[in-house]
C-alpha cells in the first residue's frame, strides 16, 4: 500500500531524457503503488487536450497503461498545464482534482496543491493568473486554432522567463501567512506542494510543509508508506535511466 506524489517534471519534446525517466518511474515505481498524485506542471506547456503532437499522444498512452492496471492517477493543474481538461482525463483514465485537495493519512490530514496560489508576494504573477484562469479567457483559448495557442504559450513562457530573472528570491517562494491560512481553512496538519523548485521539509508550529522538487539531474517524489510521508529523490542519467 503506498501513495506517490510528483510535480514539476516539465516534460517536453525538448527534454527526452526526463520523459524517459518519467516513463521508467511509471513502470518501476508507480506500477506497484495504489495511487499516484500529480501536483501540476507535469508538462512544460499544455495548449489543450486536442494537441495531436507525438509527444502528447505518447504521454496519454503511458498514463493510460498505468490506470489500466488499477493504479489510480490524480491530477491537479499547475501554472504550465492549467489547460489540462476533461478530454485528457477521459482518455487517460486519470481523475482531475480541484486546486486544493485534502487527504486523510495515518499521520494526519494532508493538504495537496500545486503551490503557485501560495506565492502571494509575486503580485504580477497573481494578476496574470487571475486573468488567464478567468472562465471567459479559458473559453476563448480553447476555441483558438492550435497554431495560435502554440504562439501564445511560447509568448507567455518568454515573458515569464524575463520577469522571473528580475525577481528577488523571497518573492518567488510561498508566503508564510498564506500557508498558515490555507492549512487552517482545510484543518490540515501537513501541506504538500511543488512549484517553487525548492525541495525540502519544513517543520511548522502545528505540523509540516513538504515541498516536491522539479525533475532534472534528479527526480523527486513523496511517498506515504508505513513510515508516514517521506520526501525522496533519485539520480537521472543523461540518457534518462533511473
Ligand atoms: Mn509551477
Report on this model:
The chain is of the alpha/beta class. 34% of the residues lie in helices and 23% in strands. It contains 7 helices and 11 strands. It has helices spanning 16-28, 54-67, 86-92, 123-132, 135-142, 146-165, 176-186; strands at 3-6, 35-38, 72-75, 95-96, 101-105, 108-113, 190-193, 200-204, 207-211, 218-225, 228-235. The strands form 2 sheets. Strands 4-3-2-1-10-11 form a 6-stranded mixed sheet, covered by helices on one side. It has a 5-stranded mixed sheet with strand order 5-6-7-9-8, covered by helices on one side. Strand 3, helix 3 and strand 4 form a beta-alpha-beta unit. The longest helix is centred in the middle third of the chain and has 20 residues, at 146-165. It starts with a strand and ends in a 7-residue tail after the last strand. The model has no long low-confidence stretch (mean pLDDT 95). Bound molecules: manganese (II) ion. Residues 41, 78-80, 114, 116, 195 line the site of manganese (II) ion (MN). Manganese (II) ion binds next to loops.
Amino acid at each position: 500500500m503506498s501513495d506517490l506524489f510528483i510535480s514539476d517534471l516539465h516534460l517536453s519534446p525538448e527534454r527526452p531524457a526526463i520523459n524517459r525517466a518519467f516513463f521508467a518511474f511509471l513502470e518501476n515505481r508507480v506500477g506497484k503503488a495504489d495511487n499516484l498524485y500529480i501536483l501540476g506542471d507535469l508538462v512544460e506547456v499544455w495548449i489543450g487536450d486536442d494537441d495531436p503532437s507525438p509527444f502528447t499522444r505518447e504521454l496519454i498512452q503511458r498514463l493510460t497503461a498505468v490506470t489500466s492496471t488499477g493504479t489510480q492517477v490524480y491530477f491537479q493543474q499547475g501554472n504550465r498545464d492549467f489547460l489540462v481538461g476533461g478530454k485528457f482525463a477521459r482518455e487517460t483514465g486519470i481523475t482531475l482534482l480541484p486546486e486544493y485537495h485534502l487527504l486523510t493519512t495515518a499521520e494526519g490530514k494532508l493538504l495537496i496543491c500545486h503551490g503557485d496560489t501560495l506565492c502571494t508576494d509575486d503580485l504580477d504573477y497573481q494578476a496574470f493568473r487571475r486573468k488567464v484562469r478567468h472562465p471567459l479567457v479559458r473559453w476563448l483559448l480553447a476555441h483558438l486554432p492550435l497554431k495560435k495557442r502554440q504562439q501564445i504559450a511560447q509568448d507567455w513562457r518568454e515573458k515569464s522567463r524575463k520577469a522571473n530573472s528580475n525577481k528577488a528570491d523571497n518573492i518567488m517562494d510561498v508566503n508564510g501567512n498564506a500557508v498558515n491560512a490555507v492549512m487552517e481553512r482545510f484543518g490540515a496538519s501537513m501541506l504538500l506542494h511543488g512549484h517553487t523548485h525548492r525541495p525540502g521539509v519544513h517543520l511548522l508550529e502545528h505540523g509540516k510543509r513538504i515541498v516536491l522538487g522539479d525533475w532534472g539531474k534528479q527526480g523527486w517524489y513523496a511517498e506515504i508508506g508505513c513510515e508516514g510521508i517521506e520526501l525522496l529523490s533519485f539520480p537521472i542519467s543523461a540518457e534518462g535511466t533511473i
